[in-house]
């Protein structure tokens, strides 16, 4: 698969009253076209800042991003963002339907636009509320409108910032499966920030674990699960459970265990992939841990 | 409904008080006729064609003044609100011009524009520009940055963000500005008519009724009509705001 997104030594510092606050401190990774990568990291470590930089909404103070091989300056075409603060990202003067149509206004005719928006609202289980205003909906419903708007756009690169934080568990499972299905159908490349470790394993082809601010990539884990995921069997599988605990440990700054209770040969292989990546991450992170502990 | 009943009761009480005060001789009847006489005079005037032409002249001038002021102030407000540099550069000029009372500009306007209706309209425009301009600029300050980021992320350029995000989000504030501008305009129009004379309008009617014959009942009838006009203009804009901008927290909080 060709590389879609290449982030090289990306850093961003906010100017604060008392000097500068370094939110992200040199993040590097690549994402192949069609890949879904989850980003996990401690609260306030700069995940939203990272997404904003990649989207070209803020200009990084160092490093660079290339998309399709060309450097990102300003907002790239064919990009959609689901913001963490989803409810403030919906236009209060537009109905739900028109909010979803908003990004399609430039490219599509009226009929096609309406059909696409209706389809996306149906995906997220909101086909009945197109005529309402977004402020008449519950938080979880608003979040689904924001997701529908991004999916209706069918972007080449989809950036999502904790997109399922406000929905109930059952809806969350459905939306996770929806995201996998729709983005694969349109071969979208997706970056999902999540604070839910289970979700990162379930959704991701890879998981990027970030350190606390100024954040760096602590680990880049490949999720060696079959691409077809199932909410029950996938989550029960031993590979899933193993990856989940490894991610959790890395997230909390822990070292990988040297011996792992692995039973089947297949899973041993998974484990090795994971373990070798930890080792890389460990080497990269020794300096950081030395200062924080 | 209850509010309406109470409001009506208050109004009736106020009129009754005026009636008692004037009829009992507490206030000299010649200079302040009782409300019943004034209202009877007003009823008579509403059938009087020349008076109606005066009213129409003032209302027409009001509509033109508010339309022209909006056409100037909204785009200007978007430019000033969206460009801090331009705003800083124009700040001193704006702060100097704004406090000048329109009525003080009458002599200048007469010299520049003559004694036709252009003069009063120009003065009303001058007075109306400020509330619309300041409300528009304020609205842009209040614009949620995340809405702008959302539009930008979906590929909207500067102009598109201005027209499809900044403008609609500013609309409730702009409408409030226009409403204030309309009531201010009415004051300026009637004052100018009163002070300059010679042009049809409510102000000129009041001026004529007061001079010579000294018909205070007609003077007050004209004044009451000007007040009713002001009330109606305000109510019309509030109604339009509630209908058109049901989404806005500004109007939502009140309904
Ligand atoms: N506009 C801003 N100006 C100044 N500082 C900011 C700004 N936005 C974020 N920060 C700071 O940068 C750091 C990273 O913020 P960011 O929102 O990217 O973190 P996050 O990982 O998304 O957090 P969370 O998990 O809570 O969503 C925080 O310390 C925050 O206070
Ligand atoms: Mg965040």
From TrEMBL, chain A:
GO terms for molecular function: ATP binding; ATP hydrolysis activity. The keyword Nucleotide-binding applies. PROSITE patterns: ABC_TRANSPORTER_1 (PS00211), ABC_TRANSPORTER_2 (PS50893). Residues 5-237 form the ABC transporter domain. Residues 260-275 have a biased composition (Polar residues). Keywords: ATP-binding, Nucleotide-binding, Transport. Residues 251-293 are annotated as: Disordered. It holds the Pfam family ABC_tran. Residues 279-293 have a biased composition (Basic and acidic residues). This is ABC transporter ATP-binding protein. It comes from Solihabitans fulvus.
């Amino acid at each position: 698969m060709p590389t879609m997104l290449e982030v090289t030594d990306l850093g961003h510092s906010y100017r604060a009253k008392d000097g500068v606050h370094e939110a992200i401190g040199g993040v590097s990774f690549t994402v192949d076209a069609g890949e879904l990568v989850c980003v996990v990291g401690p609260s306030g470590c700069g995940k939203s800042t990272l997404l904003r930089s990649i989207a070209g909404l803020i200009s990084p103070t160092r490093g660079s991003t290339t998309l399709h091989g060309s450097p990102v300056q300003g907002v790239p075409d064919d990009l959609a963002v689901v913001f963490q603060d989803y409810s403030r990202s919906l236009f209060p003067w537009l109905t739900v339907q028109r909010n979803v149509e908003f990004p399609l206004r430039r490219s599509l005719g009226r009929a096609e636009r309406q059909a696409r928006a209706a389809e996306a609202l149906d995906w997220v289980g909101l086909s009945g509320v197109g005529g309402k205003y977004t402020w008449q909906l519950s938080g979880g419903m608003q979040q689904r409108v924001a997701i529908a708007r991004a999916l209706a756009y069918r972007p080449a690169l989809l950036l999502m910032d904790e997109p399922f934080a406000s929905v109930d568990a059952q809806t969350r499972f459905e939306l996770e499966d929806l995201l996998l299905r729709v983005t694969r159908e349109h071969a979208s490349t997706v970056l999902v920030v999540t604070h839910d470790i289970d979700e990162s394993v379930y959704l991701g082809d890879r998981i990027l674990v970030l350190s606390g601010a100024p954040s760096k990539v602590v680990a880049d884990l490949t999720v060696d699960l079959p691409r077809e995921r199932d909410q029950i069997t996938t989550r029960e599988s031993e590979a899933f459970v193993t990856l989940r605990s490894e991610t959790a440990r890395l997230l909390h700054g822990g070292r990988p265990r040297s011996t792992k209770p692995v039973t089947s040969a297949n899973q041993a292989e998974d484990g090795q992939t994971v373990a070798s990546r930890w080792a890389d991450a460990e080497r990269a992170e020794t300096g950081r841990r030395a200062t924080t502990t | 409904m209850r509010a309406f009943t109470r409001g009506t009761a208050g109004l009736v009480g106020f009129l009754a008080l005026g009636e008692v005060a004037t009829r009992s001789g507490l206030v000299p009847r010649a200079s302040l006729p009782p409300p019943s006489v004034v209202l009877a005079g007003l009823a008579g005037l509403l059938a009087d064609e020349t008076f109606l032409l005066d009213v129409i002249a003032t209302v027409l001038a009001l509509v033109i003044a508010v339309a022209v002021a909006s056409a100037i102030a909204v785009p200007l407000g978007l430019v000033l609100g969206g460009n801090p540099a331009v705003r800083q550069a124009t700040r001193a000029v704006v702060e100097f011009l704004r406090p000048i009372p329109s009525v003080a500009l009458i002599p200048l306007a007469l010299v520049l524009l003559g004694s036709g209706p252009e003069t009063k309209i120009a003065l009303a425009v001058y007075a109306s520009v400020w509330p619309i301009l300041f409300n528009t600029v304020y609205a842009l300050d209040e614009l949620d940055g995340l809405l702008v980021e959302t539009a930008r992320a979906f590929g909207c350029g500067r102009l598109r963000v201005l027209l499809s995000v900044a403008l609609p989000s500013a609309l409730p504030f702009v409408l409030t500005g226009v409403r204030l501008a309309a009531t201010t305009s009415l004051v300026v129009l009637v004052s100018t008519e009163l002070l300059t004379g010679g042009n049809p309008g409510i102000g000129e009617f009041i001026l004529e009724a007061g001079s010579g014959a000294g018909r205070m009942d007609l003077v007050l009838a004209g004044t009451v009509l000007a007040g009713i006009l002001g009330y109606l203009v305000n109510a019309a804009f509030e109604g339009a705001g509630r209908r058109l901008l049901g989404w806005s927290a500004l109007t939502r909080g009140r309904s």
